[in-house]
Amino acid sequence: MAKHRDLDGWVACDAAGPIGIGRAIKEAGLAGKVKLVGLDNLPEMLKLIEDGVADSSSSTRPRMQGFYSVMMLHDAANGIVTPKTIDTGILFVTADDLEGELR
């Protein structure tokens, strides 16, 4: 950001990237001036959204991924045929979505 001060925003497509970018935006005093859209619902990412540093994030619902992994392993170990794919869905997270199951 120091090199490209005219940037209006950032999009980071991994879990750690938007957290680092959010920290840089905060440290530079650019919260609310530079947009940030991230990925996943790690606690620090949710805090950046809550604080207005990040606009939004999408989450691949890692808790559901873990739940279904354990369930499918249990079923397979007991001879139950498991599905080839499971869609756990995608959450779009904004400040309005921070209550409830995301925490």
3D architecture notes:
The protein is of the alpha/beta class. It contains three helices and four strands; from the N terminus they run βαβαβαβ. The protein has helices at 17-27, 43-50, 62-77; strands at 9-11, 35-39, 56-59, 91-93. The chain has a four-stranded mixed beta sheet with strand order 1-2-3-4, covered by helices on one side. It is elongated. The two termini are 30 Å apart.
Instruction: From the alpha carbons, calculate the radius of gyration and give it in angstroms.
Output: 17 Å
Strand-residue proportion: 5-15%
Q: Give the overall shape.
A: elongated
Low-confidence stretches: none
Say how many strands there are.
Answer: 4
Q: What is the H/E order?
A: EHEHEHE
Largest sheet: 4 strands, mixed
End-to-end separation in angstroms reads: 30 Å
| Backbone structural class | alpha/beta
Share in helix: 25-40%
Supply the number of helical segments.
3
Structural topology:
Elements: E1 9-11, H1 17-27, E2 35-39, H2 43-50, E3 56-59, H3 62-77, E4 91-93
Parallel strand pairs: 1-2, 2-3
Antiparallel strand pairs: 3-4
Task: Name the features.
103 residues; four-stranded mixed β-sheet; 4 strands; elongated
